[in-house]
């Protein structure tokens, strides 16, 4: 117990002082529970057992991992893979929040985030994962049907300056990269897609990059809050994520080599 004999004796005296009948009886150098002490022990056995069960359940409780991820990355890359992580770590429950905004990890109780941007965010530690690269792509069955409209992200029409000869004269404007990907997958035209986000669709041949690859200057990062030591679930997710990103990087290198 980490207590001296005198400290134990003092605690027993303090305990007995609160009851009208003595809880302990001395027999020479030995101390035994009195009848009142035995009765009290029987009454307390059930609530103490409940406390023991509650503590054991709390210690055995499943870990909950809350991840914030950039919406396009979450929808097209992370969700198809997160089941593998769940299978490898069955004691971890994953909560995924998909958003393009910068989440306050501490205020919103988020364990980690996958962010796209230049890095250097205050209050967090950002581990660079992979550069964002884009290229024109079209659904595979549209390649033989002539010039299809360019799918242009609003406010970023100048992105197409690196590919002046691709796409038809018509244009379709969409508000973000996620809808660009959806439009390409729907066969609506040719769009500039994020190669990491669409790695699976490119790998299966559903969409086909048709122009040179360009880096945007931004990177994907794994972001952790400063001042909070990563728990076991976060460390497991980080190790799994790094392996998945590396596997995707190798696949993209093969794609880039063919363009």
UniProtKB/TrEMBL annotation:
* UniProt xrefs under Gene3D superfamilies: Periplasmic binding protein-like II, Winged helix-like DNA-binding domain superfamily/Winged helix DNA-binding domain
Question: Which intervals hold domain HTH lysR-type?
Answer: 1-34
Q: Which GO terms describe its molecular function?
A: DNA-binding transcription factor activity; sequence-specific DNA binding
Q: Name one GO biological process term.
A: DNA-templated transcription
Q: What UniProt keywords apply to this chain's record, in alphabetical order?
A: DNA-binding, Transcription, Transcription regulation
Looking at the keywords, is Repeat present?
A: no
Protein's UniProt keywords contain Transmembrane helix? no
Q: Kindly give the Pfam families that the UniProt entry links to this protein.
A: HTH_1, LysR_substrate
In the record, the note on similarity to other proteins reads: Belongs to the LysR transcriptional regulatory family.
In its UniProt entry, what is this protein called? HTH lysR-type domain-containing protein
